């Protein structure tokens, strides 16, 4: 037999096996590719959700915008078109209010009451929360429940006993008679927010600080206060805004106009200039703008502090 013929027959005998191997490789299932989710993809809510949110925002911001714009109008514009825009814009109302020494005196009284209330609430609330969160003693749960029950006890119910107590203490017609009750009614919220923050601090940190020779007071100032700063800022902002907007308690305690805070000043100004609606709107908008700015600037702090309290 010829040698090329042998090679040709051998090649033909091996060829079917190779074809089967090649076909097996070609017919093998391919590995599925994992699709990565797009990074910038955002899930949009339903139109009903956005409609409800828009209505809620309009209900909240509508009165505020109306009051601010009303201060730039005169009485004739408000009478002819109550819901219209200023045409022309009148800046005299705001200028007269800002030039009034009475307005700035009331701003100072509100600032003093707000800062003193904030300081008292933060200091006392942080110390009480530290004890309730880090120490074990008889009656701790009952004490915490007592502070929690304070959230269900509004100042409206306690205004008569508070009036009698402040009168007996000789604090009538003074800012101290307003500040002390506001601190007392601000402590429940402060303690409810701060206790979870302080409980979340690991015990190992306290043990390591004790081994290094740090006293309990040093641990409180060096470790507890910095770690609980988001909750402290949140409670401080809430206390300041609540004091700035407080109306019922100053109404019962303060009778001298020299001691009036801004909410009482708005009422007195509206009674004095009852026929000048535009000027009353200007005074009202200027009295609420500081609290709005303060709350807007620290809104993220408030949300972060409340989120941390819930997680804790």
TrEMBL record:
List locations, semicolon-separated.
Cell membrane
Could you tell me the Gene Ontology terms of the biological process aspect for this record? transmembrane transport
Q: Name one GO molecular function term.
A: ATP binding
User: Which CDD domains does the protein's record reference?
Assistant: TM_PBP2
InterPro entries, per database record: MetI-like, MetI-like_sf
Keyword ATP-binding part of the UniProt annotation: yes
This protein's UniProt keywords: ATP-binding, Cell membrane, Membrane, Nucleotide-binding, Transmembrane, Transmembrane helix, Transport
* The ABC transmembrane type-1 domain, residue ranges: 107-298
Name the PROSITE patterns for this protein.
Answer: ABC_TM1
Q: Does the keyword Transcription regulation apply?
A: no
Q: Where is it found, in Gene Ontology cellular component terms?
A: plasma membrane
Per the record, the similarity remark reads:
Belongs to the binding-protein-dependent transport system permease family.
Q: Any idea what this protein is called? A: Thiamine ABC transporter ATP-binding protein
């Amino acid at each position: 037999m010829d040698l090329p013929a042998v090679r040709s027959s051998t090649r033909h005998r091996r060829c079917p096996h190779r074809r089967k191997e090649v076909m097996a490789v070609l017919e093998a299932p391919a590995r599925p590719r994992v699709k990565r989710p797009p990074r910038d993809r955002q899930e949009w809510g339903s139109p009903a959700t956005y409609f409800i949110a828009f209505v809620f925002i309009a209900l909240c911001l509508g009165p505020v915008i109306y009051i601010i714009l009303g201060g730039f109008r005169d009485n004739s514009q408000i009478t002819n078109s109550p819901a219209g825009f200023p045409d022309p814009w009148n800046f005299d109302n705001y200028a007269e209010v800002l030039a009034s020494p009475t307005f700035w005196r009331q701003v100072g009284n509100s600032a003093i009451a707000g800062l003193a209330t904030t300081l008292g609430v933060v200091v006392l609330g942080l110390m009480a929360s530290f004890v309730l969160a880090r120490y074990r003693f008889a009656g701790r749960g009952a004490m915490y429940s007592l502070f929690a029950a304070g959230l269900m006890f509004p100042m409206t119910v306690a205004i008569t006993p508070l009036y009698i107590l402040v009168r007996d203490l000789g604090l009538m017609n003074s800012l101290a008679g307003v500040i002390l009750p506001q601190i007392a009614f601000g402590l429940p919220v402060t303690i409810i927010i701060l206790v979870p923050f302080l409980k979340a601090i690991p015990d190992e940190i306290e043990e390591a600080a004790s081994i290094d020779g740090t006293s309990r007071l040093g641990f409180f100032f060096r470790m507890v206060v910095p770690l609980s700063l988001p909750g402290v800022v949140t409670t401080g902002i809430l206390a300041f805004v609540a004091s700035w907007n407080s109306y019922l308690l100053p109404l019962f305690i303060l009778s001298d106009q020299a001691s009036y805070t801004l909410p009482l000043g708005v009422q007195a100004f509206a009674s004095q200039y009852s026929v000048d609606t535009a000027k009353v709107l200007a005074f009202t908008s200027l009295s609420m703008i500081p609290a709005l700015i303060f709350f807007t600037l620290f809104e993220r702090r408030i949300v972060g502090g409340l989120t941390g309290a819930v997680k804790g």
